[in-house]
Amino acid sequence: MGLLVKGGTVVNHDHTNRADVYCDNGKIISVGTDLDVPPGTEEVEAHGCYVMPGGIDPHTHMQLPFMGTVASEDFYTGTSAALVGGTTMIIDFVIPSPQQSLMEAYETWRGWAEKSVADYSFHVAVTWWDESVSADMGTLVKDHGVNSFKHFMAYKNAIMCADDVLVNSFSRCMELGAIPTVHAENGELVFHLQQKLLKQGITGPEAHPLSRPPMVEGEAANRAIRIAGTLGAPVYLVHVSTKDASDAITYARANGQQVYGEVLAGHLLIDDSVYQNKDWATAAAHVMSPPFRPPEHREALWKSLQSGNLQTTATDHCCFCAEQKAAGKDDFTKIPNGTAGVEDRLTVLWDQGVNTGRLSMNDFVAVTSTNTAKIFNMYPRKGSISPGADADIVIWDPKATKTISAKTHLQNIDFNIFEGMNVTGLPVKTISQGELVWSDGKLNVTKGRGRYINRPSYPPVYEILQKRQALNAPKAVERTAQ
Ligand code: URQ
Ligand code: ZN
Ligand code: ZN
User: Fold this and answer.
1) Does the CA dihedral 245-250-255-258 come out positive or negative?
2) Is residue 428 part of a domain?
3) Of 122, 187, 402, 434, which shows the fewest CB atoms inside 10 Å?
4) Within 10 A of 120 (CB to CB), how many other CB atoms are there?
């Protein structure tokens, strides 16, 4: 049975117009006024609201096994919270242990994700290297719709990649038409600074940002960009948190390099004063990597987002409750890294982005949905209100208000980094796969309704890069025999 979204104003990344939207069989059929729809079509009221593409969060970690525990949010509760917040798709991460087959890890995560209630896809992390990793990357691209591979430059003695792995894997990505993505922090420097701080007897959460100062991100960001540039590969930097890294991206893009940057809602709103909180648990609840930064970095990130030098927003939703964080009571390096956000991303970005004039509504759609769909080659199936696109829609009431709190959020974590924030503008209805799943404060989903989304290889960037490579192909010097 179809749905007719009536009376709203459609906001896409590139235009805004008063239009109704008719959906059927999970797809958008038509957009416009006076639409011809079958009698008895269910109507969804959108007067006074904006009708936008459902949010896509390119960075989540549902039920991630990490630092001796498992993230408290699983794929069912996490995608439920996402839908309530207007996000209709997540891209999560398969993170093989070093020496673990990528295919084996991929099958494990696919099993975990079957209980999802919203659409999902996976970046696959390359955490070690040999020919079998290269082969598995090929299988994942060719047979499983993976077109992005993650590399952690941090987390020494765990999942950290040294430069040789980056060079091998970025090169393999180019052969396959996949995009390498990186967590850019110099893991050797972090490890050194962590040991130094512990020796100085600084063991609390206040040491966390001291062990990962902005230059630690700036160096790694620059290194990843240079490695990719030398190889001719694109590169996508996740959770850019500093002016250092966003400047490196801006410089590379200004010189024609295919570099993309993602910024977290948390890094756009929160600064490093949280680590000075006298309450240990509150300070520890904010321990994530990269850490929250001094205010000047936050302003630089907004400017980069406004200027288009950062293209996507995410949350890095990776939940650990108080008793899990307490593992690091006497040693900050043992506090599981991660914070939540999948339910609040759109709301806080509307409040601090659109309501303040930093972002237009079209910019908002671009950075919460469309740009991610384009970079990871799902557009216009995802990230668009247009005929043929998936019927993933958020109906936004710009006048609705609420106060964000862990007491009322759906996320399976006992803390909210946006606690107490009064916001104006809310997702009042969410349509996923053409079904009205969130409305009137009620979530109506069945476990397992979420779909795995294949992302074809050869994202748009590759046509450009292949032409360049052909133009600049090296030529041997012809020498006459002496
Ligand atoms: O580094 C990441 O993105 C994962 C392990 C989540 N934790 C975090 O602190 N960001
Ligand atoms: Zn990360
Ligand atoms: Zn992450």
Assistant:
1) positive
2) no
3) 402
4) 25
> From start to end of 7-77, where are the E strands?
9-11, 16-18, 20-24, 27-32, 42-45, 50-53, 55-57, 65-66, 69-70
- Examine residue 19 and state whether it is found in any structural domain, yes or no: no
Alpha carbon distance 91, 342 (integer Å): 11
Look-up: residue for tokens 């990776």?
Answer: 318
Find out whether the beta carbon of 285 lies less than 6 Å from any atom of ligand 1.
no
For ligand 1, say whether the CB of 338 is within 6 Å of any of its atoms: yes
pTM for the full predicted model:
0.97
pLDDT for residue 470: 85
Distance CA 240, CA 275 (A): 19
Q: What is the pLDDT of residues 379-403, one digit of tens each?
A: 999 999 999 999 999 999 999 999 9
Measured from the CB, is residue 337 less than 6 Å from ligand 1? yes
- Output the CA 317–ligand 3 centroid distance in Å: 7
Instruction: Establish if 292 belongs to a structural domain.
Output: yes
Total domains in the chain come to 1
Q: Is the CB of 159 under 6 A from ligand 1?
A: no
The answer as to whether 466 is a domain residue is no
Radius of gyration of the chain (CA): 22
Other CB atoms closer than 10 Å to residue 226's CB: what's the count? Answer: 14
Under DSSP, is residue 17 helix (H, G, I), strand (E, B) or coil? strand
Find the domain containing 108 and state its range. Answer: 52-387+452-461
CA of 208 to the centre of ligand 3 (A): 17
d(CA 436, ligand 1 centre) in Å: 32
Residue 382: give its domain's CATH number.
3.20.20.140
